[in-house]
Automatic annotation (TrEMBL):
InterPro entries: RNaseH_sf (IPR036397), Tc1-like_DDE_dom (IPR038717). Residues 29-196 form the Tc1-like transposase DDE domain. One of its GO terms (molecular function) is nucleic acid binding. This is Tc1-like transposase DDE domain-containing protein. It comes from Zophobas morio.
Length: 272
């Protein structure tokens, strides 16, 4: 059974997404995400396997490269790609990316390249969610506190997130994916295509950076458009199912952790 906060956040996402889709002044969505490749090829991993700690590469698999990029139905945002070599080879790269580095990429490599006000779609990785001000910690997660306050008609202000402020002050909006819903991000399918190409190319070229750049160039705007269309159909299906469904009473579990980033780790690349 889905956790109440996931259901609630999905409804928020769907509502905001469809509001823009149906708007007379629709803004383009920009989908961003991080992924990784190894110098000797990538790893296929099914989303059903939740034990990330048990999955590691051997030293013979070569170095790992962490990648950030963004795009939409028109293709990748031009010259926004970032790739850098990781310091270790474990599959869980998230501890190597931090808010400072991500926000630097956002400010220098992505936002200046956007030609019109856009909606930036991203997940809730910890480095996407750094608070502008440090606040006292509690046993409750932010979303649980907010849902409880809403239920009891108590007003509250959003905790300012540094990344959100960076985006909104440049004229764009932020739309955060609900936890465990990477199917709402078409760039996951783009990653699958690029990694298949990369796996074949890097074995011949032995140059990870060149192989990855060729893999990016191999994705056409038409393919991006088909991935976005496929994702929009999924989102609209969820919207049709959920827009009239009443959310059950929220039962808050004080011990539940909600920090997540699904990306490739919860997505079966071979099943696309």
């Amino acid at each position: 059974m889905e956790k109440p906060h996931v259901v609630a956040l999905r409804k928020v996402f769907l509502s905001k997404y469809m509001e823009n889709v149906n708007s007379a002044e629709k803004k383009p969505f920009i989908y961003l995400d991080e992924t990784w490749v190894f110098s000797n090829g990538t790893v296929r991993r099914s989303w059903q396997d939740e034990d990330l700690g048990s999955v590691k590469r051997t030293s013979g698999d070569g170095g790992r490269y962490i990648i950030i990029n963004a795009g939409n139905e028109e293709g990748f945002v031009e010259n926004a790609s970032l790739i850098f070599k990781s310091k270790n080879n474990t599959l869980d790269y998230h501890h190597e990316m931090n808010a400072e580095n991500f926000e630097k990429w956002l400010q220098n490599d992505l936002l200046p390249k956007l030609e019109e006000p856009s909606i930036i779609v991203l997940d809730n990785a910890s480095y996407h969610s750094r608070l502008e001000e440090k606040r006292p910690t509690t046993a409750w997660k932010k979303v649980d506190l907010q849902l409880w306050l809403q239920k009891n008609c108590i007003a509250f202000s959003e905790l300012d997130k540094s990344l959100d402020n960076i985006i909104t002050t440049t004229g764009h909006d932020v739309l955060r994916l609900p936890p465990y819903h990477c199917i709402f991000n078409p760039i996951e399918m783009v990653w699958s295509q690029t990694k298949r190409f990369y796996d074949e190319d890097v074995l011949k070229s032995k140059n990870p950076l060149d192989a990855w750049n060729r893999a990016l160039q191999n994705v056409t705007p038409e393919q991006w458009k088909s991935y976005v269309k496929h994702t929009e159909n999924i989102i609209k299906t969820y919207w049709d199912k959920e827009k009239f469904v009443k959310v059950n009473k929220i039962i808050i579990n004080l011990n539940v952790e909600t920090d997540e980033s699904d990306s490739d780790f919860n997505f079966a690349e071979n099943d696309i």
